[in-house]
Amino acid sequence: MSDDGVSGKGMRPPDSLRSLVSGMYRRVRSAGLRAGGSAPNGVRTLEIAYVILLSDEAHNYMSKLEIELMKQYGPHEGLKATPHITLKLGFHVTDIEPFEQYFDQLVTEITPFEISLKNIGFFDDVGIIFMDVVHTPELEGLRRRILKDLSERYGINPYPLEGDQYHFHATLAYLSKHDFETARHRLKQINIRFKFKLETIGLMCHTGEEWVTYKRAKLQHKFADPSGKH
Known about the structure:
This protein has five helices and nine strands.
């Protein structure tokens, strides 16, 4: 980790985005059709998601911060998933095998690129604290590719939240209104920056209680440093 002096001001998304995030937050917090649930036709479903898994340094920093937040405010939803950056929000399937095969294909085709985490951000209206992810064409291109593939191959359509306004982030915690405001005051001045090369992606699955990493794999292509350094 390095501190480059960038101020950690809280990020307040526009009204339309806050409304969409709020709707997704309520969906995530509700029981819904989780693992072990069933669709109206009686077919049992699983909820899965495609994610980027962080470097060891960023992962360990986020985990430590999540534990610190738990010590201050008690258990929270951020503890129910390994630190990650979501590429495709959770969606329900009746058979995970085709989506596992697609995951295996991605591993062979993605060209690694640099990812930057910068400071701590806040979705004020829904009490979410997160590590902010710098939006890059490479990151957005990968997300769009996955959304397109899932739609065309499997009929999995994007959520409204996954449009042009999508905000890349790595969730730290979901807190109550009072705890959120206290934590926001404490964390908003922290200056943080991590840079790492995309190396590992994950296929996550919801158990009904938490997200687990069902499968993880390293990309097969080598990272091409634009500076020419190795």
